[in-house]
Design goal:
The protein is built from five helices and seven strands, in the order αβααββαββββα. It is of the alpha+beta class and 295 residues long.
Length: 295
C-alpha cells in the first residue's frame, strides 16, 4: 500500500505593504538653563510692556499738565515782563442821577460831578502807601502839594495863582514800589475847563518847559523830545490835553518825570521819580490809566 501525502495548504496572498511602526517617542531631556532663559524672556516682555504703559501715561499727564499751566509757568514759553505794574481793575465813579459826563456836549464847563476822591488812580499791587498824601477826609491841603516844588519863590507864586484861579479841592494819592519808584498824583479841581486850559498852557505847564521847578529835577524837557518814551497818540483822549516832561541825563541822585493832564475842570499832576532812573513804561501806564478815570 502506497503512502499518500496530505495536500499542501493553499498559499496565502501576500500581505499588503504597511509602513513600519514609528519609533517610540522620547521626551528630550531639559537643558539645565532652559527654564531660566524662558523666565528672562518673559520678564523682558513684561518690562517693555510696563515701560510702554508708563511712557504713555507720563506723556498724557505731561500734555495735560502743559495745557493746564499758565504760559509763564512753562520753561521756554515764559514771557518776560515789560515793566508794567499790576493795577486793580478800574471802575467808573458813580454820578448823581442825571449828571452828564465831563465831556458831554451839554456840559460846557467840563464839570466832574463825581466825587474827585473817587477819581484818583488806586495804587498797584506791592505798593507802600504814602500816608502824607491822605489828607483830611481825603482832601489834601494846598501847602502839602506845593512842597513838590523846589524854590520857595515858586511855591509862593503858584499859591497865589491857585487862589486867583479859584482852586476848590485837591485829591491826592502816593505810593512807593519795591524798586524805589515814588509816584504822586494830585487832582486839582477848579470851576471850569476854561480855567484849567489857561493854567496848563500858560501858567503852570507850557509846552517847552514847566513854569516851576519840581523838587529833584533841575532841568526838564518836553516828553516829545524822546518819542519812544512819550504817551502814544492812540492811548490819548482827543478832548484831553497832555503836557509831559522828562529830566534828561545827566540827572542827579534820581530822575523825575512829570505829566500835567487837562481834563475838563480838573488839572491832574502826575510825578514819578526813582533813584538811577524813572522807567518810561510804568510812567506811561500810570498817566494813561489816570486819564481814563478822568475821562
Amino acid at each position: 500500500m502506497t503512502e499518500q501525502t496530505a495536500p499542501s495548504a493553499p498559499a496565502l496572498p501576500p500581505a499588503p505593504d504597511t509602513p513600519p511602526p514609528p519609533p517610540p517617542v522620547t521626551e528630550p531631556e531639559p537643558r539645565p538653563d532652559a527654564g531660566r532663559k524662558d523666565r528672562r524672556v518673559l520678564r523682558a516682555v513684561l518690562r517693555w510692556t510696563a515701560a510702554v504703559a508708563v511712557f504713555a501715561a507720563v506723556g498724557s499727564a505731561t500734555a495735560y499738565g502743559v495745557t493746564r499751566m499758565e504760559r509763564t509757568d512753562v520753561p521756554g514759553l515764559a514771557t518776560g515782563t515789560d515793566g508794567r505794574w499790576g493795577y486793580p481793575a478800574l471802575t467808573t465813579a458813580p454820578l448823581p442821577s442825571g449828571s452828564p459826563g465831563p465831556f458831554a456836549e451839554e456840559n460846557r464847563a467840563g464839570a466832574h460831578y463825581a466825587d474827585l476822591r473817587d477819581l484818583v488812580l488806586p495804587a498797584p499791587e506791592g505798593a507802600k502807601e504814602d500816608k502824607a498824601l491822605r489828607g483830611k477826609d481825603g482832601w489834601l491841603a494846598t501847602d502839602v502839594f506845593l512842597r513838590e516844588y523846589e524854590v520857595e519863590a515858586d511855591r509862593d507864586s503858584l499859591r497865589r495863582t491857585l487862589v486867583d484861579t479859584g482852586l476848590r479841592h485837591i485829591a491826592a494819592r502816593g505810593w512807593t514800589m519795591p524798586d524805589g519808584t515814588h509816584t504822586r498824583i494830585y487832582l486839582l479841581h477848579f470851576d471850569t475847563a476854561a480855567v484849567v486850559d489857561e493854567l496848563q498852557a500858560l501858567r503852570i505847564a507850557p509846552a517847552l518847559n514847566p513854569a516851576f521847578v519840581v523838587r529833584g529835577a533841575d532841568l526838564s524837557v518836553p516828553g516829545e523830545t524822546y518819542p519812544e518814551e512819550s504817551i502814544p497818540e492812540k492811548a490819548r483822549f482827543d478832548d484831553m490835553t497832555y503836557t509831559l516832561y522828562t529830566e534828561p541825563e545827566p540827572y542827579g541822585d534820581e530822575q523825575v518825570r512829570q505829566a500835567y493832564l487837562g481834563a475838563g475842570d480838573v488839572l491832574a499832576v502826575v510825578l514819578q521819580s526813582r533813584k538811577g532812573g524813572a522807567r518810561a513804561v510804568p510812567f506811561q501806564q500810570t498817566v494813561v490809566l489816570q486819564s481814563q478815570l478822568l475821562h
